[in-house]
Fold this sequence. Notes:
The chain has 115 residues and is mainly α.
Amino acid sequence: MNDDLSMIYDILNEIALYLKDDTDNPVSMSLVLHNYGIHDGVAKGKVILAAAKVLNSAENTADLTLMDFQRAFNAEVSNKFSIEPGEGQDVLYILKWLSLHQMPDLYPIVMNLAD
């Protein structure tokens, strides 16, 4: 990454920090993807499609687990998402961001997963 891009990246991280970016207050899904080493320009769209596939394939959305989304994101987007039990904060962050900004029907499911 050249110096200009590195500085822009630092600026974005500082803004996210100022906005108290965390799982309860997700600021930027793209920044989180980048921080996980996912630099695919269409990764965000892939995440949205993967989450939609999980939702549409579920017989009962109340039975969905974080692992269901972790596996889908690994299969459809990148293998950088942890599939270890108890290590799904990255996926939970993304799901919360999606539920607040792209897929409002996902919100009650995410709140159930966060408990």
